[in-house]
Amino acid sequence: MACTPPEQAEAASRQVVQPDKTALINRLRRIEGQIGGIAGMVRDDRYCVDILTQLSAVRSAIDALSIRLLENHARGCVRRAVQENGGDETLEELMGIIRKMIR
């Protein structure tokens, strides 16, 4: 994974080459399909518990995707930053995103 360290780039211009981009895109497409299905369930006045069950499945799929991206980030960008310059800023950024994820 190639990444631009935080101290060398603004947040909006950071880029990362994901090692498993195709798998990530495929997961996102499945999630899009699930969301479309949920919209259809709402349009069709489906039973609330069925809709909530599908929403729970989408949340689980998003969580799994988030964990995968977090792992990629830790094994790529964070590891590289620690090796090159101690990684203090990158580790703080990592902790910040973990805090957001567990809320």
Automatic annotation (TrEMBL):
<dbReference type="GO" id="GO:0003677">
    <property type="term" value="F:DNA binding"/>
</dbReference>
<dbReference type="GO" id="GO:0046872">
    <property type="term" value="F:metal ion binding"/>
</dbReference>
<dbReference type="InterPro" id="IPR003735">
    <property type="entry name" value="Metal_Tscrpt_repr"/>
</dbReference>
<dbReference type="Pfam" id="PF02583">
    <property type="entry name" value="Trns_repr_metal"/>
</dbReference>
<comment type="similarity">
    <text>Belongs to the FrmR/RcnR family.</text>
</comment>
<dbReference type="InterPro" id="IPR038390">
    <property type="entry name" value="Metal_Tscrpt_repr_sf"/>
</dbReference>
<protein>
    <submittedName>
        <fullName>Transcriptional regulator</fullName>
    </submittedName>
</protein>
<dbReference type="GO" id="GO:0045892">
    <property type="term" value="P:negative regulation of DNA-templated transcription"/>
</dbReference>
